[in-house]
Amino acid sequence: MCSCDDEPVVADEGTAWNMVLAWLDRSVPGATAQLRPPARDEDLRAVEVAVGRQLPSDLAAWWRAADGVDGHLWLIPPYFSPCSIGDALERREILLDGWNGVMSEDDPERFAARMSSAEQEPAGSPCRFMWLPSWLPIAEDTGGGRIFADLRPGPANGCLRTFYRDDGASDAPVWPSVTAMIAEIATGVTFDLPVAGRLPWIEDSGTLTWDQPRLRWYAGGSAFVQGPKLQEQYETFVAELSQGGFAPPARGWSADRIAAHVTHNTELLAEVTAALVGMPGAAADLRYDNTAAFDPAVLNRYAELGIETLANRIASFSADLRAAADGLDRSTPRIQLHLVEDTDVLIDGPEHLAGVLNALWARQLPLRIRQLRALRDSHQS
């Protein structure tokens, strides 16, 4: 993640949606082709007739921009694809009949009375094990989960909540409105910031997915470290860094700051990994703490060495790290980890060091490579 001094602001829903579309065009091959044509006014009116409620203006505007997606495009974290109006109405009917049918089997009259009472509550009021007529799905995952708009009246009208097959509706809204959801997605994908606690990530296959911040620093636990992958990612990073041609960043780290961060972090990891492999009995006294790799004073000191020197250091430290990592296995004891992202503490306790190294080749180094390439692309444009 980039280290930013202040939070970006998205002016309005239209601006936010255009930011999302621009990012999809740049980053997710074929994604915008999955967007369906704009919804027709008669389709929007049909929704309002079916639900018996007026649509919030921002939800109607979103469907006017694109009537959901074809296939799976996890535009909403963690794995939700926007629904078309047709799908929304179909899923609503299934839940009204199927879910409520199962829930009401023991006492249909009591269930109907409870649902009638809940329907009169203000939007956002908790209601777990039933599907209300004023709830409208707007996105779904592949496992029976939904994001729905709560269209009951009240100040929270139009708030967005989740509904899962086994747990029912969430007690609290995830977003207060469609506008808020799109604005958070827009800032998240544009500036690599969390969206509902998840970070955007594009797999090598071109699929959009969402990470938790912790997974960018720790993954795989005690699984064997894939040494060739680790070496490959370091070689790619050093090659990108050595190529140069970077522009100053509009936000976040410069190329020399990225290089300084990777240099110091690799130095720390090489030292602790070698110590653990060489003296596994001393694991209780070993500690890996990446805090200094985000310290501005430390990064400035390293950055002063220059990109060429840092590239050479990374090549040397990474070779030492790869050699030491080959000695880790499932029997290697845990050590104390203190992992942060900027100032947010992600892990503080005993864990397997292999989890750090697996996240290093799978997420950290690819992320830094992408940041370097973005700075070069910015300079060339």
Biggest sheet layout: 5 strands, antiparallel
Shape: elongated
Structural class: alpha+beta
Average pLDDT metric: 93
**Uncertain runs with pLDDT below 50, 5 residues or more?**
1-6
Distance between the termini: 23 Å
Task: State the total count of DSSP E strands.
Answer: 10
| Strand-residue proportion | 5-15%
Q: Provide the gyration radius in Å.
A: 25 Å
Order of helices and strands: HHHEHHEEEEHEEHHEHHEEH
Main sheet: strand order: 1-2-3-4-5
Task: Please bin the fraction of helical residues.
Answer: 40-55%
* Count of helical regions: 11
What can you see in these coordinates?
With 381 residues, the protein is an alpha+beta fold. The strands form three sheets. It has a five-stranded antiparallel β-sheet. A three-stranded mixed β-sheet has the order 8-9-10. Strands 6-7 form a two-stranded antiparallel sheet. It starts with 12 loop residues before the first helix and ends with a helix.
